[in-house]
Amino acid sequence: MLQADTSENNNSPPIIVIGNDDVAEKETILVQEEQLLLEESQLSLSERSESTLPPDDASSNSTVTPESLNNDDTKPLYMSETDFMGPVIDFYKNKNILMTGATGFIGKAVLWKLIKALRQDVGLIYILIRSGSNKRTKIGRPLDRIKNEILNNKAFVILRRMMGKDVFDDIVKTKIIPISGNLISPDLSLSEQDKDAIVTNVNVVIHCAATLDYSERLDLALETNTLGTLRMIDLADECKNMESFVHMSLAYTDPNLPEGHIQERVYQMQLDDPERLLSEIVNLELPDIPKMTQRILQHYPNTYTFTKSLTEHLILKRVDSNRIEQAQGGKAQWPVAIIRATQVGAGLFEPLPGWVDGVTGTNGAVFLMGKGIQVFPPDMGNMLADIVPVDYLTRVILGSAAFMAKPSHRFMLPYNEILDPDADSDSVNMPNIQYFPYVYQVSASAYAKTSWNHIYESVRVYWSRNSKITLPSATDYFAANRPLFKAKFFMKYQLPQTISSVVGKNNADANLNNRTIELASRVVESAHPFLRRRWIFDHYNVLELQEQMEQDGQFSLDAYKKVDWDTYMINYCYGVHSCIAPTVPEGLRNITVPEDWACALYVNRSELEHSILDKQIESVIFSASDIQKRTDRMLTELIHSLEKPGQEMKDKKKMEEWVNDFDASLDDWCHDDSNLLKDTKNMVYLGHWISPSESHEEHITIEVLNDRRVGQSIRQIIESSGVPQKTVVSESLKILQRMRERTQLAYIWSAGAFLNTLFKRLFSSLRICKKDLDRVREQIQGKNVVYVPVSKTIIDQLLLWYICLRYELPLPAIVCDEALALLGPISDILRITGAYFVRRDRASRSPLNSSVTAAYTEVLLKEHGAISMVIERARSRTGRLQTAFHDGMINMVIEGTEGKNQSHGQAEKEPTALLSPTGSFSSLSTNRETVFLPVNITYEKIPELRTLIDQVLDQKPRQLTASSTFLRPSAAVADRVASKEPTGVVEKGKYGRAYVGFGEAISVSESVKESNLSPLKRASTVPVKDADLTADFIARKIQRGQHEAAVVSPVSLVAATLLFGRAAGGIPMGKLNKHVSWLREEVLDKGLNIDWQYDEDISTVVSYSLHLLDAKNNVTMDGKRMTDQTIVRVVEHADNVMDLSYMASQLIEIFLPEALFSVVYLAGAEKKVSRRDLLSQFTFLVRLFKHEFIYPWNREDKFDILVKWFIKKNLLIDMQDGSYEKVVTADNNEEEHTRVCLLASFIYPTLDAYWVTSCSLSALRDLPFMPRKIVPVLSQWIAAHLITGRRTVYREVLSTEASQNAVDNFLAIGFIDAVHPKQKLSPDAQILLLELGVTTSEDLVMVSNRESDRHELELEESFDNILLKLQDIASLCHEIEKYRHLADAVNLRNNAQVFDKCQNQIRSILRADESYATQHGMKLTKEEDQMIQLVYSLKVASTTPVISDDGNEKHSRRVSQAYNLKSS
């Protein structure tokens, strides 16, 4: 079992020592991680693996900065011991291995697999590696190359994390031995000490080194590829315990081989006898080499393929010679394997999906295809793409050594057989004959086959999603009539026609790009002579090996039998993009979804063929190009209305254009000639929208009017007002007509296709767990379903609706507030998705309206089977769950489930019925169970964020006038940035990823029964009317389900950590990475899903998150070069902070109990604290924030869990006497103390906002009452002063949202009371308030006497109730102060007078020579006069223009400037 690294060292990084403890005076490798600085990889010409490039041409970004190694607290992956059992593992246990080419592509993969599969059971691994010339290659000694080129590679960094730091470091320290050597030297340049160690210890040789410079001079290529191999064989001959020798060769050597089957044999050389050729070339003089080279190139495309072919023949010659010696009683021949691979590609599973290293094999072709450069001739589209994943090849390499039997001297050399044209290829192998050496041909023929058409299409999908390049389809790319097609092709897609048209720019990035393209082109061109051949590589030895390794968990080849080429190539492209492309986008992440997840926007190819959403509609009027342009216009307009709501109807020309495009789109779908919508037999999930009858609307109307509640409302109106029945019924019909949905089948698919395009434009990915989908289908089968998503954005319900349509879940009718019917394009889309608009506010809803709404909801739910609604009043402005708004919709669903309000068959008895029903819907005759389905959609970024921040800060949009606005709009900075980009262009995927999580289905009938029995029925944190108690109980269950369904984005982890760093003036990048990694592990421990795959390193995830967090505007970084010591600081502007705060809100919800407990833990200087006191303080904070947060947990139960959690973390010690000792401080354990502070920082800004609000209520000492609406404005004014005076570091205190919640809480816990203005104010005072924007319907707040609420609070007996001890708002303010950040004795003394000082500050703005009321000629009481003056003064203070340094008025840069204050 792998163990996690539990060692902690905050002063210096751990040291990895690589060396041979058994060899005296052997130099060890000291890898001090934070000092590893990577440079561009420049590998040796003489020692490269089969898949690397020449040193001067090497270009790979596959290594990662190792500074982040110490900052990744990810726990090792658990693997059972049974995962490490099998014949291959048994063979290699304690075997010593000599490797060459370990710095290359294949060599790295082999070394990685050895470490991963064998762990500590592996013997010594001797790595023969050339010492570089510092002047030429800048790579230094072998130990430096191992450190820089192998251990710093991303594959090994991730492996270290998977295995655990201690395990991996111990293997590196004790098992890996660098050996300085050189293949071109006759004695391999080995020291006597090194050679003795190899000869004595080595059991297996894996020879992967070669020079891959295709234009290499003949003699130099021969020295490395051929003579170097023979020298390695000589060395193996000397080894005392030699068991296997594996030589890495090449399948593509002789392009002149006939098409058809290629045997696992060595084909005769056409040039001459191999030994004579070798002798001739070795004895050539330098001037004679070109002539010999020309002779060779008549048969081989380059010197590389020639030398590899020659090497195979010479190995056979050497083996034949050894056989004679063995027959004469000499040394026995050890097993030899020749491994031939076709085109080596990225890893399928290992080391990482899509892992590549260098421009080699197929890597160059994938890179060029992604650039739109012509790689293959047109007729190759349908030919076999013979790509071998490097991990498949690695398993064959290592497995071959394990299963090769020692040959006797009676074997047959594996030369090819000449067969009749009609002979079966199986007849090549003769029974009972041993062929030796063993030849393994590794080709795609051994597993799933695919074509270059398929490969290219997957490449096109990746680069289209991850770049601005528009690549042609595979049909266009492999067009048969190329000469006629070429000009139109390149003009259409604006692609480069030749390599020279791409290269040639002189800037640094262009030069690097040119170099990579030239390298990739050379690699592809070298393979062209072979790719056009229709060869079938025999692989009998590979198949036999596959059977032998079937039971080996680490080396089995069974997983490769079925390759998902789409997924493989997407991963491949990501590897090429991140490791080979010279310029990599910030925070580039792989777009492949994990195995158990699905992406709704980009389905796989098999699903695409049957998807209506992804197919282009055929129009009888418009061309495909016209439809695309129309769709782009509609997308631009809709996204604009999302990002800047309220601007929809201002541009009449734009609106007319939208309406015309919208109507034309619907018309195309209604008259579709492609018959996409004809087959409706598989569309049952669309409910009654499949094929509504002609009398559909009439039936709905009759059912609603026959509803018992509607009938009662009509009778009450008739009896109370005497209005004629016909008039009341007519009004009922009007309400129903305004409310009802009016969509149809064509509209549904039109909306689905448009939303599919919209969400592809907004989001890079839309992910959902497959297990969630399966569970939901099972739980809602045969039931009516009410989807309840968390309300975060306008598009929540549209996105959920789209998910249902994509995955064939019951498609809901959407319940929308009437306000959403007036949002222009958004409203139009809602209508065609089947939305119906209701008046959610009970106060503005008449009894008749309520009854019609309830009846229609019941009929629609029973007939259609699915609706979707939200239970919050409005979308969240903070990103967190909100208190449920009891609009009666849940009650309507409950009543509809009980089915007591429909009066079928008795219409003739009801005076309210217009018509007797001619028949009822079949679904109405059967009462089905109804379930609520909680849904939580996580957004990494939302389109309306700017608007929400303006609302939270009470800011108004910037006006293009000379007058100053109330507060600076948050959009100002972003607008300036956006102005530099082309107008109308919407960046694709700019809002990152979105995730949909489903909670457990909640049965309505069972919940109703449970609520009647449950003692928690009245356990709501906010006041609830008796009629809503059951609905509130269900709402809390729904919100608990929403909380548990959350999918965590790493963006929230980074945002929260950035905000935490403010207290210290910034956070080093290394610590940022470390904290984010720790938070990830804590999220996983909670059993929640997080979008962070195991093969993603911390640096990539943080970089991605910073990009989405708009780091260029929201944070600053020291220096030009990013290191662990780089300080990252949040830009301390209110809108920037609120931007990050919104993103971090998801994490606050998840860690809310831990954060509250951490605040309690850090409060006070006492080391020993009783359980009673801890519970009292925890309860105080829970109650203080009951309007701020949703608590989906029981307080006391959660407290017990938290105490155990803190004890487990060694933060508390149970003293066994009812008390605990706080163990950790900043002095004795900085790391753990910092983590507690990190958790507490999630609450500190809100705590400070409540503290500021309580300070602002000091005004009630002088004023007996003031408007409730003005308290957030007053709090914001006070907050600006406190920020200036450095009393708080949190700009979140400027949020009016937190202040409003604080006022609600202070009312709920009895520190202030609310009273209607008409009870306290004179008519003149009410008139003045109206002039100042305060309506008389809004409450006044006044000081509470605190007696009326004591009785309920005294019922708590298990602990001291802190709230009971507080007499007034001032004492509450001082109590909150105790829990604030850095609330030590000194700060408490300094802040003790803040409440009084705030009162004096408020008094200062009340003083005036002539009050506002007096100026208006009104005589008021002193209390009224001062209250009016306060409201007036705040309004004047907030609207005064800010004077810039040049004396001109300018728009406020910070919220505090709106009050003529300088920011701290």
Please specify the SSE layout and strand pairing.
Layout lengths: L14 E4 L10 E4 L15 E2 L37 H6 L4 E4 L4 H14 L6 E5 L12 H10 L2 H10 L1 H11 E5 L11 H10 L2 E4 L1 E2 L7 H21 L5 E5 L11 E3 L11 H9 L6 H9 L5 H25 L8 E6 L1 E3 L17 H8 L16 E3 H14 L34 E5 L9 H15 L7 H4 L4 H12 L14 H24 L3 E3 L2 H9 L16 H15 L17 E3 L5 H4 L15 H20 L8 H19 L25 H10 L2 H14 L3 H15 L5 H18 L2 E5 H11 L3 E6 L6 H11 L6 E5 L7 H8 L2 E4 L8 H18 L1 E3 L20 H10 L31 E10 L5 H8 L18 H8 L14 E6 L3 E2 H10 L15 H16 L2 E2 L1 H11 L6 E2 H17 L3 E2 L7 H11 L2 H4 E3 L9 E4 L3 H17 L1 H11 L5 E3 H14 L10 H14 L3 E3 L4 E4 L7 H11 L3 H13 L9 E2 L2 H15 L11 H13 L3 E4 ...
Parallel strand pairs: 4-5, 4-7, 5-6, 7-9, 9-11, 10-15, 11-14, 12-13, 17-23, 18-21, 18-22, 19-20, 19-21, 25-27
Antiparallel strand pairs: 1-2, 3-8, 16-17, 22-23, 22-24, 26-29, 28-29, 30-32, 31-32, 33-35, 34-35, 36-37
Helix pairs in contact: 2-12, 4-5, 7-10, 11-16, 11-18, 12-17, 13-18, 20-21, 21-25, 22-29, 23-24, 23-29, 24-29, 25-27, 29-30, 31-39, 33-34, 35-36, 35-37, 35-39, 40-41, 40-43, 44-45, 44-46, 44-51, 45-46
